[in-house]
Structures are given as structure tokens and as C-alpha cells.
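## Example pair
The file below holds two records. Each record gives the amino-acid sequence first, followed by its C-alpha cell line.
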Amino acid sequence: MSDSEKVRTDSAKAWLLAARPKTLTGAAVPVMIGVALAWRDAQDYVAGTFKWTAAVLCLLFAFLMQIDANFINDFFDFANGNDDVETRLGPRRACAQGWVKLDSMKRAIALTTCLACVVGLPLVFYGGLEMILIGALCVVFCFLYTTHFSYMGLGDVLVIVFFGLVPVCITYYVQLHTCTWQVLLASLACGLVIDGLLLVNNFRDRDNDRAAGKMTLVVRIGDAASLALYLGVGIVACLTGLVFWLNGHVLAFVLPLIYLVLHVFTYLKMKRLNKGKALNLCLGETARNIFVYGLAVTAGLLL
């Protein structure tokens, strides 16, 4: 495949590829679940409790931060020599392929970071001044993930926090100015489901990461434990959904079982393939499964 020949440097197509639109499902799902939880609990919605503007701002902020994270990852991995075109097993990256110049990527990172801050700032009117602290933490850890924590095996913790706890709970908080233990459990389940994407990514890259001294969780615990963990995050997430059943939302527990079936099939494929670029199939399936989970939980809460 000659993508580098088909994509002109700094073209619109180059930037679209650099933004990695397929990853936006991981940004959308936590906000979807947070919105559904808030809508469910807004008993006086007709009186104006639920604020659609705040919900849209949360979604746009999540999208921009995801794109920002992708740009940062693309830039620093190439700048640090971790994106070797010859040995890379995952999808091609913009800087490594020459689709985007390093200076252009620097400017894009600055622009998306600023845009995310501008979009997120009005949330202060809905959630209070604490939204500034939350936004600042999102920006800081967006950089620290690629530059430090992913090398220390802490990437999975950050995924659970910033793709589960923070977006679900904050989306709920800006609507109702509180956060219940049920919302916390739902946000934890969401973070676990999305962490599956990082697990399969790191499982595919484990040999290259080990050689580069990148001590991801997969590298630290080994192949068998990593496969078991991938399966386990999906099972635990669905079991956590029992909280919905206990609160009278049976469908919010039952519908995500569709996700669990798909997750198990992806796990079996991941176990069978074990190595190489073929694991990108599992990466794509995991992204699909995450979106199915988000739709299932959202539908179960709203129906």
C-alpha cells in the first residue's frame, strides 16, 4: 500500500488521517452515557433542568481533546524515534509517513489545545469554577500520557480516569450539580470498556515496546495475563451494570450483553492471531464494540 504517495503533505486528507476519526467513538461514548444518566435523573426536565447546550459543549470538548491527544501522540512518538515505518505494526502515522510536517503538527497541537479550552470554558457557567481545574487537568495529562505515563505502564489508569470517571461524571455534574455512586460505577464501567482499546493496541506492539524500553502494562504482566485482562475488563464492566438493574433500568443491564458477546468473540480472535499486523482487525472490532456498548447503555437508560 503506497499511502505516502497518495497523501500530499499537509493536505486536508493528511490532517483527516492525523486526526484519526475512528478514535472519536472513544470520546463520544462517555459523554453519551453521562447525558443519558443525567436525562434519566432530571425528574423536572420539562422545567428546564436538563441543559442541551452544556451536553453539546461536553461532547465538543471531548472530541477536541481526543484529536489533540492523537496529534500529540503522533508528534512525540515520531520525534522520539518510536514510530519506525519499517517495524510499525499499527495504522500508519502522519508525521512518520511525511503526511504532516513536524512544524505543522506543533502548530496544530497548539491550535487544538486552545480550541478545546475555548469550547470548554463556557462549562464554568453550568458547573462552576471547578470546571477550569478539570479542563486544565485534561490538557496536562493529555501531554503526560504520551510523554511519560505510557512508558511507565500507567496508560491504562489514565484511560479509566479520563475516558471513564472524568467525562461521565462531569457530563452528569454540569447538569445536576451532584454525582451519585451509581454514576461513579457507570463511569468506571465505561473506562474499563474503553481501556480494551489500549490493551489490544499494546498487545499488538508488545515486542516493539519491549525493545524500545516502553514498559506498558502488557509488557509488564505478559501475554497470558494481558489476554485474560482484555477479556476481564469487558466482563467486569457488564457486571458493574447490575447497578442499573437494581435501580429499575433492566434494559441498561441487558442490552450491553450484546457488547459482551462481541467482546468475547474479539478476545478469541485476539488469542488466535496472537501477533503481527493481523491484530489490527481486533483493534477495529474493539472500537466497534465500544460504540455498541455506548449505544446499548444509552438506549437502556432512555427507554
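Second record, same layout:
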Amino acid sequence: MPRAAPDDILIVIHELAHLMRIRFDQRARQHDMTRAQWVILYKLDRSPGLTQNELAAMIEVEPITIARLIDRLEAKGLVERRHDPSDRRVWRLHLLPAAEPMLEEIAAVRQDMLELLLGDTVSPEKAAAAEATLRLMKSNLTADGRSCPAPAAKAS
């Protein structure tokens, strides 16, 4: 008989995150965008003037990946790079007014996702408790201080 594993919550969190990413990908594609581009718009809306390196660290991708994503958003007229006033080598990222309709769409999709997740079965109290618990878990991971082991070297 299979035993209840303490890692079941890990599987549920992983599967939930995966399903959410799929839904956000689908909605972003309807607007000829990617989920990664939406994340950038969302982050810049909340923290205008980030550098490409700060944004890359925040969303855990390589700086070259951010540069390419910003190139595409710039071509769409949604984002612009501005020189940092104190260091001309640094580019600061800013949203343009044309990004506002997309930010409204992102907000609507986030609201739709929340309504879908909670449905009629999850009370506001349960949702608040789940959020608080997830925030504690996140805090535990970030406060842990242990780093992930480096990948093993491949044998030649």
C-alpha cells in the first residue's frame, strides 16, 4: 500500500504552478506576447527604472535573455531604455504609455486566474490563510541561506 509522502504538498505546488504558467502562456499568446514579456511589464509597472541586470535577477533569467525580451518590447513601443543619470553605462527600463492597455489586460487575466483558482469553494478566509502559509514557506526558503549544489561535472 502506498504511503502518504510528506512531499505531496511539493507535488501539488509544482503542478499548480505549471497549470498556471500554461494558462498565462495561452492568454499572452492571444496578444502576440509571451508570459515572460508580461512578467517584465508587470515588474516594471511596480518598479519603474530597474536595470536590465536587476530585472534579470528578479525573474531569474540571464541578462542576455532580458536584453532580447526588452528589444522585442521596445520594438512594440511598450518599453524604453534610458541612460542612468549617474552612470551612462547603465540602462534604466521604463514603460511607455502604450503599455497601459496591456497592463490592464494582465490585471484582468490575473483576476480571472484568481477567480478560477478560488471558484465557489475557497472562502476568502481560506484564501488568506493559504497566501499567508505560502508567504511563510517562501520566507523559510529565502532565509535558509543554503545554496543549491552545483551540477556534477560531465564525464568525457
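Notes on the second record: DSSP finds six helices and two strands in the chain. The helical segments are 8-29, 35-46, 52-59, 63-75, 100-118, 124-144.
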